[in-house]
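Posting for a labmate who doesn't have an account.
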Amino acid sequence: MSVTLRGEAREVALAEAQAVLAMVQDEDRRARLADLVAAADAGEVGGEDAEALAELLELGLQTGRLRALYGPGGEQAALGTYRRLPRGAQAAASAREVSLALGALVGKPLEGIAVAAAGPGAFTISLAAEGVELTVRLDRHGARVASVST
């Protein structure tokens, strides 16, 4: 799968890849980032370049770096790009699956709810309604249905 980069999305992707390339010392990572810079400059990323760009955008979005450097418009352009990359598309699909599972609880009286720390940066939310218990895991990989019991 290949993603086309245009306008502000291309500018942000290219600038971030160049910034990280300038800081990296490891030759293997430098080669990977140089490939990403060339792909972003050409306006088309796919394969390993798409994965590398997703990593850069995730970090920049999570830390607030992209908004701080490129403003709200740059942040939105990066977010739009991220959503079109395989990693972002997987996160969206996972969120849709969780929403569908949660739909089974709509209209039922809520009997219990609990949030638990499952590990560093990972949490579970358990919901119980009319004999159905649904547990959702939230972590850096997104939202996933962890368990459903009746």
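Reply:
Got it, the structure tokens are right above this. The CA atoms of residues 8 and 74 lie 6 Å apart.
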